[in-house]
């Protein structure tokens, strides 16, 4: 099914969808329109790349999808429910359960071990009404084993390589049992071999657990790994010429 830019009809099957989403930062002459009437539907389990140069609005799309920024216009539907209609607590719970992030820098808590960084995320996701969708036991040891870091449980982030730190960040994201994984330039600071291995890991986990994957990247090589690429130019979504 085509999801070209300008497609106003959002499929009811979408896991998450932006309907005519605009986002502005600031007001008046100092204001910036970061997103302009974005239409985007992400299906369960799909692998999508959000491709565009720096400043094109990629991070803002991810933040809108994750409910971290509210649209100035339009709405974001998570399983058909308008995210902005949920109160902050319900939005937070939806995020804690279903939507996880991996950032460019791994954003680990520097004074806590790999184990502790993942354990915090396990604690947040272990709510009484949390549904387990991944089918794995949700312990920090198992999650770190899954990303190949079973021997680094006690390492502090400063004692890990860039690739290892990103693996911890991936384990932390998996702790949320995500149905949607949002990756923002996940390999932007890694050398190409390490980047390749981190992308292989993310894609392998996606095949195993079936979450939808949205990767924001300026890198055409990273974008080309996705099943579908949408391009952002100055906050507008266009059908990518890179196919
Ligand atoms: N918190 C903010 N306040 C003001 N402007 C912002 C903010 N975040 C992003 N922008 C602006 O919005 C536009 C899109 O930014 P961003 O989504 O970060 O793009 P990308 O991730 O593609 O580099 C840019 O012009 C950026 O300067
Ligand atoms: Mg960005």
- Write the H/E string, N to C: EEEHEEHEHHHEHEHEE
User: How much is the average pLDDT?
Assistant: 88
The end-to-end span amounts to 16 Å
Count of DSSP-assigned helices: 7
Strand order across the largest sheet: 6-7-8-3-9-10
Strand proportion, as a percent range, falls in 15-25%
- What percent of residues adopt helix (DSSP H or I)? 25-40%
Rg of Cα set: 17 Å
* Count of folded domains: 1
CATH homologous superfamily (4th level) name? P-loop containing nucleotide triphosphate hydrolases
CATH architecture: 3-Layer(aba) Sandwich
**Which molecules are bound besides the chains?**
adenosine-5'-diphosphate, magnesium ion
Number of strands: 10
- CATH topology description: Rossmann fold
Give a verbal description of the structure:
By secondary structure, this protein is α/β, with parallel strands linked by helices. Helices cover 30% and strands 24% of the residues. It contains 7 helices and 10 strands. It is globular. The N terminus is likely disordered. The protein binds adenosine-5'-diphosphate and magnesium ion. Adenosine-5'-diphosphate (ADP) binds next to strand 2 and helix 1.
